[in-house]
Design goal:
The complex is a heterodimer of chains A (206) and B (222). Chain A is mostly helical and 206 residues long. Chain A has helices at residues 44-54, 66-73, 75-108, 111-119, 124-157, 169-196, 199-204. Chain A is built from 7 helices and no strands. Chain B has a single domain (3-220), classed as P-loop containing nucleotide triphosphate hydrolases (Rossmann fold), CATH 3.40.50.300. The chains are: A mainly alpha (206), B alpha/beta (222). The structure holds adenosine-5'-diphosphate and magnesium ion. Adenosine-5'-diphosphate binds at residues 12, 21, 39, 41-47 of chain B.
Chain lengths: 206, 222
């Protein structure tokens, strides 16, 4: 009786299996697994000698550490993930740039309104609170919708992930935080610029 | 003394030189006065009014407001003076298009230390006085020019300013409405509000107690 073993690939769930003596089911090749303490490659010479002692005509090849075996088994996957990660990063950066552009443009469009409000007694702080508050509220709506969509879409991803949940909380929180910061900056800086000029100058802005 | 201007000048940079809009303005306005600024179009009337209203800080010379030294102040300090003492009627109204009449009137109150429970009472009061109760949920674009002007006047006086500055406040009103506004200015003035208005109308000017004439940026000596 043995416990479950992942033998073909990391993603495949372990299937029921039994171990039988080699001689009951001979094949023309054999893979030998050696558990080592310390550097496993140091054992190679000794292992060759032992096998040669049993059968001097036996060819030995494809000597690898378990690390290499695992690494090769996921190489393709790793490359796909690298590409996916690259595209995701590009998408995130584009989103940030776009978000900044849209919000800061819409705030600069409000220069005239800001001029009116300052002429009616609004201080810089009043204006910043209003504009940044509204920008953040908008960003929250966007993030809410985005996260909901992401939660649905990541179900598709789950088959490709190992060791990370498709709804990884750190990733979701990190991306949300990043976009919220962008929205904040995009409302804050143009609004501050609009409050720095004389109301008369802002009022002429159409 | 409410306003004291000494050698006040304003110029715009144009090409290689400067174009002066106001030249060596010396002007005193006492508390409680009702002053009318007159002069041809382009004389600098609106410019002078926005300087008095602390909306424009790009000028040289001396400006004392209630003994405070405005020419040493920064933008923020000037806005603070505006907020505490001044109501302004713009020549082009400057109502906020995406807010209703009611919300437009509430803006000046929202920036002052007034309890929100009292604010709605004040707004309803002024709506009543300007006979615009039925219009309170309309947007500026749904009003005629005259009605927008009435809202602009109401918004300027809603926070009880000590100084009311009005740039052609009856320009778009028919004479009955215009007369009503002027009667009302008179009443405010009698109650202690200092008023400076810009107008082309001799009839309106007659409500005030003094006329200041501007031409090409210069004060015209009487
Ligand atoms: N931003 C500006 N740049 C250059 N000149 C300006 C600007 N704003 C106003 N002016 C000029 O200032 C002068 C006075 O304008 P204004 O005060 O509006 O006159 P009024 O209200 O008496 O008709 C005008 O000749 C106008 O062309
Ligand atoms: Mg004018």
């Amino acid at each position: 009786m043995v416990r479950n073993v992942k033998s073909s690939s990391l993603e495949a769930a372990p299937r029921p299996q039994v171990y039988r003596p080699f001689l009951q089911n001979t094949q023309n090749e054999m893979t030998i697994l050696i558990r080592a303490e310390g550097d496993p490659l140091k054992l190679v010479a000794a292992a060759r000698a032992e096998i040669g002692a049993v059968d001097p005509n036996q060819p030995i090849d494809n000597v690898r550490t378990m690390e290499q075996v695992v690494s090769q088994s996921v190489a393709r996957r790793r490359f796909q993930m690298l590409l996916l990660g690259l595209f995701a990063t590009v998408a995130l950066v584009l989103t940030m740039v776009g978000l900044y552009g849209v919000i800061s443009y819409s705030v600069s469009q409000r220069t005239h309104e800001i001029g009116i409000r300052m002429a009616l007694g609004a201080q810089q702080g009043d204006v910043l609170r209003m504009v940044v508050g509204q920008g953040l509220r908008l960003a929250m709506f966007g993030l809410g919708a985005g996260l909901a969509a992401a939660l649905l879409l990541t179900r598709v991803l789950s088959s490709m992930l190992y060791g990370v949940s498709p709804t990884d909380p750190a990733t979701f929180a990190g991306v949300s935080f990043l976009l919220a910061v962008v929205a904040l900056a995009a409302s804050y800086f143009p609004a501050r610029r609009a409050t720095k000029v004389d109301p008369m100058v802002a009022l002429r802005h159409e | 003394m409410m306003i004291k201007l000494r050698n006040l000048e304003k110029a715009y940079a144009t090409g290689y030189g400067k174009t002066y809009v106001l030249r060596r303005i010396d002007l005193d306005i006492e508390e409680g006065e009702f002053v009318t600024i007159m002069g041809p179009s382009g004389a600098g009337k609106s410019t002078l009014l926005s300087i008095l209203g602390m909306l424009d800080g790009a000028w040289t010379g001396e400006f004392y407001f209630l003994e405070q030294v405005v020419h040493k102040m920064n933008n923020k300090q000037r806005v603070e003076l505006n907020k505490r003492y001044i109501g302004f009627v713009f020549q082009s109204y400057h109502l906020l298009d995406n807010l209703t009449v009611y919300e437009n009137l509430d803006i000046p109150l929202s920036y002052r230390d007034i309890k929100s429970s009292e604010r709605s009472g004040i707004v309803c009061d002024i709506l009543d006085r300007f006979q615009m109760v039925g219009k309170k949920d309309l947007y500026p674009s749904q009003l005629s020019g005259g009605q927008q002007q009435l809202v602009a006047v109401a918004r300027a006086v809603i926070a009880n300013p000590k100084l009311l500055l009005a740039d052609e406040p009856t320009g778009n009103l028919h004479s009955a409405q215009g007369k009503e506004i002027m009667e009302w200015f008179k009443k405010l003035n009698d109650a202690g509000t200092t008023i400076v208005q810009v107008t082309h109308s001799e009839v309106n000017a007659a409500y005030g107690n003094r006329i200041v004439r501007l031409a090409d940026g210069w004060l015209v000596k009487e």
